[in-house]
Amino acid sequence: MRRRILGAVLFVMASLVAFGQSATPSDxxxxxEDVRRDVRDKRRDTRDLRHDRRDIRNDQTDLRKDRxxxxxxxxxxxxxxRADRRDARSDRRDSxxxxxxxxxxxx
Length: 107
What we know:
mainly alpha
């Protein structure tokens, strides 16, 4: 008797599960829409990823150019500073020489 009750309960449960699974074929339209939306999102994400990679490459190129420009400018500035020091030294020498020539010596 217990076997019959247990068998009947299992049969009813299996029938309910099978009915619950077979009751969803009407949702295929929604599934197709979900698949289309997922495919669209995947394409959009792929395009965005391509654009991001391109932007990164462009940014890296710009950074390399900026770094090279800064180094070139710094080198030029150092040369200008050395030349200015050289000119200032020369001007001081000339000034001292002019003072010696124009200043009369009293003895």
